[in-house]
Amino acid sequence: MSGLFAGFYSILSWIGSIVDPFCGPVGVFRWLAPGTLLACGDTGWGDDIAYGFVVTASLAIATLPVGLLIGFFIALGKQSEERTIRLAANIYTTIFRGLPELLTLFIVYYGLQILVQQLLATLGYEGPVEINAFFAGMIALGVVFSAYCSEVLLSAFKAIPHGQYEAGDALGLHRGRTMRLIILPQLVRIALPGLGNLWMALLKDTALVSVVGLTDILRQTGVAARVTKQAFEFYGVACVLFLILAMISSIVFANLERWTKRAEMGR
Amino acid sequence: MSTVATMIPPQAPPPVPPRPYTLTRFVGSVALGVWLALGVGIFLTVVNGWDPEKFAKYGPRFLSGLGVTLMLVSISIVLGALLSLPIAFARMSKNKLWSWLAYGYVYFFRGTPLLAQLFLIYYGLGSFRPQLETVGLWWFFRDAWNCALFAFTLNTAAYQAEILRGAIGSVPRGQREGAAALGLPERVAFWKIILPQAMIVALRPYGNEIILMIKGSAIVAIVTVFDLMGETRYAFSRTFDFQMYIWAAILYLIMVEILRNIWSMLEARLTRHLKR
């Protein structure tokens, strides 16, 4: 079984190396920068930076569902009829929108470390505990994202007329099905521009996780800058890579928006 | 024939049926309970771990860090506001070259992380030391504080230019035409008619931008500026006391909340003629 997985994984990584836009056979760094500092392999930093690019993108992509899910439930809580739920949800957003992302990250990173250490100490394990920077970043950024996301979703919820819920009731749909079949499709359409902005902010916030040692774009270019003493060039490359990520996402979001509005096209 | 001889005596209304204990109420109590427990826990750790020595040693440092943060944010917001005016006008100008240049500036500073911009200026310009020395600007870029101020100003100028442009664009055309019909010169029309109306629209985004800057300013700690976050990291690295982060979090929360309340008061005051 494990052999099957290993084979599968090697096939995947082979496909990845073929279509790799940086260091693959048709990669940018391989064709445009051979012999320079950005070359691939042992002579340059191209492959390291490409790895950082993948880490940044995957951190943002991994954070998105976490943040969206928490944010959705916080938004539901904010419009609940129960006062305690509303209060709890409002405390959540006040705290995580008010704290600097960097501080949230440190609190999660060091706080989790201390918590896990104490927990393990009670279980009888004494030793250094290191929290994965990727995991800590995912939690911290997801929490911050969800706080902002709940505000966007809340205003989208308010934009949906009450008659839509009543229509669901009239059709005899269960509350969950009303949400899934009637409300959510409209919610996505209304909230998408706001969510696009939040995604851009999330992409930029991933740079902060380099501070706790995640090997993302900024970390890798920073290491390269320190070793080669060519800081301006490497940080410039980092900025360009972030711009590329932003451009790709704006194209994707434009297409998504067109897709969600396809029903309105004819009018 | 019968008449009503006695009235029915007044009775108390039937008792309110007790609210059913639903799942929602349970979830609400649990959620609030979690916050309460967290609050009490934090309070207890602060009380238990209270150390007058530490407080005397790091308290003043925290205050000075707070001052550095506030100063950095306020100076860069003001300078950024000044810089954003020409950028916003270039962005709105009919000249393609100017508008594209301004668009590129705004796109770069809004599309890349503030941390990367800060590194680009602090470490990146550091590698141009000979050139900067010949121009006589090295003294400025040698200091991390100046670099942070410079990066923040450029960054917030890009955001503020977009806010300004959006707000000016939101003023209806008729206002401009009305001013023209009254024979007002364009300059007067802009300052007296367009800008005041644009500022009402721009007020909320400006507040958000200031809050974002306060939060974003925490990253200067990474380039060795001792702002609130820098002092916190310093104190934590000395004491390994997690309370330091809690103190910083409380200070940041207070700052942001005060600003948010001031801003909602300002908004209520400035839009009082729009209320019915």
Strand content of chain B: under 5%
**CATH superfamily (homologous) name of chain A:** MetI-like
Average predicted confidence as pLDDT of chain A: 86
Instruction: Note the overall shape of chain B.
Output: flat
Major sheet summary line of chain B: none
Radius of gyration of chain A: 22 Å
Strand % of chain A is: under 5%
The percent of residues in helical segments of chain A reads: over 70%
Weakly predicted, low-confidence segments of chain B: none
Q: What features would you highlight for this structure?
A:
heterodimer; A: 267 residues; mainly alpha; MetI-like fold; 76% helix; B: 276 residues; 11 helices; flat
Structure overview:
The complex is a heterodimer of chains A (267) and B (276). Chain A has 267 residues and is mainly alpha-helical. Chain A has one domain (47-260): MetI-like fold (Orthogonal Bundle), CATH 1.10.3720. Chain A is built from ten helices and no strands. The longest helix of chain A has 33 residues, at 46-78. Chain A is globular. The mean pLDDT of chain A is 86. Chain B is mainly α. Chain B has a single domain (53-274), classed as MetI-like fold (Orthogonal Bundle). The relative contact order of chain B is 0.11. The model of chain B has no long low-confidence stretch (mean pLDDT 90). At the A-B interface, helix 4, helix 5, helix 8, helix 9 and helix 10 of A face helix 1, helix 3, helix 4, helix 9 and helix 10 of B.
